[in-house]
Amino acid sequence: MSDAILAVPEKIPSRAVELWKSFARNRAALVSSVVLVVLVLLAICASVVAPHDPIEQFRKDILLPPAWLEGGKVAFPLGTDDIGRDILSRLLHGAQLSILIGIIVVTISLVVGCALGLVAAFFGGLIDTAIMRVMDILLVFPGLVLAVVVVAVVGPGLFNAMLAVAIVMMPSFTRLTRASALRELSREYVSASRSAGAGRFHLMVRTVFPNCVAPLIIQATLGFANAILDAAALGFLGLGAQPPTPEWGTMLSGSLAYLQSAWWMVTFPGACILVTVICFNLVGDGLRDALDPKLRR
Questions:
Q1: How many Å apart are CA 31 and CA 39, to the nearest integer?
Q2: What is the pTM of this model?
Q3: What separation, in Å, do the N-terminal and C-terminal C-alpha atoms of the chain show?
Q4: Nearest residue to 88 (alpha-carbon basis) of 97, 72, 75, 102
Q5: Residue 288: is its pLDDT beyond 70?
Q6: Range of the domain at 73
Q7: Under 8 Å between Cβ of 49 and 42
Q8: Residue 284 forms part of a structural domain
Q9: Which residues cross the membrane (predicted)?
Q10: How far apart are CA 285 and CA 175, in angstroms?
Q11: What is the total count of domains within the chain?
């Protein structure tokens, strides 16, 4: 027999392995994903890792600097705020709250947006026009301004802030789902499914939607960063989480008066927001490159 017949065929890598290798080539996205994993673990274990209760006040240790500066204490590694609360403990519990905000906001906007996008793509006509015109109206307003308007109507609070941010993010998921579904509806496999007797709901959920998931994953990752940033902005304006809730935006709002005398009160919450948002954006870029066949080649 010839060598060609006896040759063992090269093992074809699975889809997941191929995607991971493509994602791992992006060093920035890989490092960012590691940082996010550490952040999530710290948020989950905040009650164990935090040295103090986030709302406990140490009246004798007000405005202590970080432990490595003169006057600092090891018991408060990142210092204390204006009423003696440990900043590290509040940051760790704030991470827990920020991750929860991102999950809830992205879930609400993703579920509602995907449902509206699929309905608009499959039904068309007046339904499509009505849904997309509402989305266009929502897109006219800047995201933060619209969120402020919604919170002003329903009232300040953490849940209302999450609902407002979800409404702001919903048009992007709706338009992306509709565009992806319309593209898939022109494919031959959809026509074959129709010929085989598949109903509209089966086509919508089992046939078309799974092929629209890749861009939605990328949008959800980027939306996670926007959700955390917008929620922090609402907290900074006093429309989101209310004191003494340890939320990063609320911590920033309460520390502006001490910008020069106690810089650590402003720097550490701001750095947490900055690093988290950048990491989510870099991971989203890495997923986009890995899931797009053209960019992967």
A1: 12
A2: 0.84
A3: 36
A4: 75
A5: yes
A6: 21-295
A7: yes
A8: yes
A9: 28-50, 99-127, 139-168, 216-241, 261-284
A10: 20
A11: 1
pLDDT in tens, 142-189: 888 888 888 888 888 888 888 999 999 999 999 999 999 998 888 888
Q: Which residue has the tokens 């407002």?
A: 164
CATH number where 71 lies: 1.10.3720.10
Q: What would the DSSP string read from start to end of the chain?
A: --HHHHSPPPPPPPHHHHHHHHHHT-HHHHHHHHHHHHHHHHHHTHHHH-SS-TT---GGGTTPPPTTSTT--TTSTT-B-TTS-BHHHHHHHHHHHHHHHHHHHHHHHHHHHHHHHHHHHHH-HHHHHHHHHHHHHHHHS-HHHHHHHHHHHH-SSHHHHHHHHHHHHHHHHHHHHHHHHHHHHTSHHHHHHHHTT--HHHIIIIIIGGGGHHHHHHHHHHHHHHHHHHHHHHHHTTSSSPTTS--HHHHHHTTGGGTTT-THHHHHHHHHHHHHHHHHHHHHHHHHHHH-HHHH-
153-177 exposure pattern, b = at least 16 Cβ within 10 A, e = fewer:
eeebbbebbbbbbbbbbbbbbbbbb
Phi, psi dihedrals of residue 106, rounded to the nearest 5°:
-65, -40
Could you tell me if residue 289 is inside a domain? yes
How many C-beta atoms lie closer than 10 Å to residue 271's C-beta? 12
Q: One-letter amino acid identity for 109?
A: S
pLDDT digits (tens, 9 = 90+) for 178-225: 999 998 888 888 888 888 877 778 888 888 888 888 889 889 988 898
Inside any domain, residue 3: no
12: in domain: no
